[in-house]
Task: inverse folding
């Protein structure tokens, strides 16, 4: 009958049935499914090869075909033996999974493959029956599947000499507890003589101030370095590092030769310092890399070169009292900065080419400082918590800001016709330098271009949100009468309404007025008429602005 189970559960059942001929226990099955959902089925299938070190390819061929109900078949047995020889018997688990999937699809086959139809039907029935049994919490099947490494790894220590350490198939720990123990002549093989693709190994090493090492690390997935001031670790001769951490930062350090797929981070910082990261192979136009901050609470900074898309993950470390990571980020080639995670983050980001800072997937409170360097547009997205976004538009770049959810505080200048979208929550928007030399000139040639040269604010809710304006010179609120405001609102165009508002307000005054469906705030310079040096802010869709919702200084 056709197979009724699919996906990861079907793959796990097929793999274990083909290798063992029997069903798993409920506990073993659920553990394997959880691991496969996390990392994929392939690592489990690869790990199966370590369970048969003494069996020949011919013996393994017989084992698989017998358990799948395909014997006797001398031709198929010979072909499978030859295939295992060509791919290596260490891959027998992958072959078992492939065969199980192929056979399952041959039920009802026609032509030359019709000879496998009956075996396929029996196989599908076996898989369905095994799944029903294995997924029952009361069953007592096999407690361990072939190729599922279960055991205890070892802890091995390096010395001050030349070391060549080899781990087991389990999760091992390699220690270099004092400066000088990890050296360029050391070779650490985490995988041992077999495969530990399910378990992960760790190297924990201390580098003294000024030390520079280029060790050979093979299959050591997690590397934790307590790197002293001016120390240097090179991964040029290492393979398989998944996470590279600097612990207890104190002073500057440099990591080079890092694979682009390796996650690099700072955790449990002390006095802090700058971590300079050089990624290997970062020579294209679209390179991306990931860095992690976990309890970076000192004077930490990370410098990353030649990476166009940089992702920053802010998360908790092991210090329960730390709720905010603090680190400066310098990325000379970055065009996109992505901020994620859930631990609060205070950071200043610098980079000459940054066009996007995206924290829309960040759930912690973000305190971001950034100064533009070009004249193009820069997009900034806040996260889901209450963020503080301080963006200096000193270069004249146009800002397109979406503050996100939460009660946010956004601070910008008046150097261009920015667009600011405020999300849910009680937000506060600060705009400084209005009606000054650094502010963008108003184009008063037509009503249309005047609107284009205004700062636009959307999703502003009067009575909930607040806008605070600071003029280049001391500025106060004007107090127009209702009749004056009605006259402004009745103007034939935005240009006419704004010009009337300017003369109504007077010099060094700010006036809020409605035109159409929107509310505008004009900040006048020292001249009591509309001119290029004045500044205009548009509150899109705001029909009436409560006096308490805006302030000027």
Result:
């Amino acid at each position: 009958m056709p197979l009724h189970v699919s996906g990861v559960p079907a793959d796990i059942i097929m793999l274990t049935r083909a290798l063992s001929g029997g069903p798993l226990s409920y506990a073993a099955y659920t553990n394997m499914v959880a691991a496969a959902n996390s990392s994929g089925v392939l690592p489990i299938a690869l790990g199966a090869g370590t369970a048969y070190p003494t069996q020949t390819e011919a013996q393994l061929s017989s084992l698989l075909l017998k358990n799948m109900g395909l014997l006797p078949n001398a031709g198929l047995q010979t072909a499978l033996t030859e295939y295992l020889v060509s791919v290596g018997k260490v891959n027998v688990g992958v072959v078992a999974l492939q065969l199980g999937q192929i056979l399952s699809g041959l039920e009802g086959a026609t032509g030359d493959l019709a000879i496998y139809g009956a075996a396929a039907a029996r196989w599908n029935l076996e898989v369905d029956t095994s799944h029903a049994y294995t997924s029952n919490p009361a069953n007592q099947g096999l407690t361990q599947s072939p190729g599922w490494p279960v055991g205890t790894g070892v802890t091995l220590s390096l010395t001050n000499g030349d070391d060549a350490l080899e781990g087991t198939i389990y999760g091992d720990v390699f220690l270099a507890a004092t400066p000088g123990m990890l050296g360029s002549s050391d070779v650490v093989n985490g995988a041992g003589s077999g495969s530990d693709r399910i378990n992960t190994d760790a190297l924990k090493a201390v580098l003294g101030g000024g030390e520079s090492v280029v060790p050979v690390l093979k299959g050591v997935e997690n590397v934790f370095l307590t790197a002293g001031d001016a120390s240097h670790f090179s991964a040029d001769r290492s393979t398989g590092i998944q996470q590279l951490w600097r612990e207890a930062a104190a002073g500057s350090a440099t990591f080079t030769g890092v694979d682009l797929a390796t996650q690099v981070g700072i955790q449990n910082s002390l006095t802090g310092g700058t971590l300079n990261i050089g990624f290997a192979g970062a020579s294209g136009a679209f390179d991306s890399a990931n860095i992690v901050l976990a309890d970076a609470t000192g004077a930490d900074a990370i410098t990353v070169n030649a990476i166009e898309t940089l992702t920053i993950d802010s998360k908790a470390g092991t210090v329960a009292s730390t709720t905010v990571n603090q680190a400066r980020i310098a990325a000379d080639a970055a065009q996109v900065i992505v901020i994620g995670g859930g631990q609060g983050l205070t950071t200043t980001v610098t980079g000459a080419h940054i066009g996007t800072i995206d924290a829309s997937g960040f759930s912690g409170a973000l305190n971001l400082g950034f100064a533009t360097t070009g004249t193009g547009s820069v997009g900034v997205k806040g996260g889901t918590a209450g963020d503080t976004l301080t963006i200096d538009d000193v270069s004249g770049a146009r800002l397109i800001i979406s503050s996100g959810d939460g009660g946010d505080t956004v601070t910008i200048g008046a150097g261009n016709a920015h667009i600011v979208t405020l999300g849910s929550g009680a937000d506060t928007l600060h705009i400084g330098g209005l009606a000054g030399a650094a502010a963008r000139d108003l184009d008063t040639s037509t009503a249309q271009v005047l609107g284009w040269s205004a700062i636009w604010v959307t999703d502003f809710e009067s009575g909930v949100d607040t806008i605070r304006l600071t003029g280049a010179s001391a500025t106060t609120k004007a107090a127009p009468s209702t009749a004056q405001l009605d006259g402004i609102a009745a103007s034939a165009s935005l240009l006419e309404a704004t010009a009337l508002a300017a003369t109504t307000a007077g010099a060094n005054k700010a006036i809020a007025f409605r035109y159409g469906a929107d509310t505008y705030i004009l900040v006048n310079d020292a001249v009591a008429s509309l001119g290029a040096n004045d500044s205009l802010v548009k509150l899109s869709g705001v029909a009436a602005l409560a006096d308490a919702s805006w302030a000027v200084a």
About this structure: Residues 243 and 263 are 5 Å apart (CA to CA). The longest strand covers residues 324-331. Confidence is low (pLDDT under 50) at residues 142-151, 192-198.
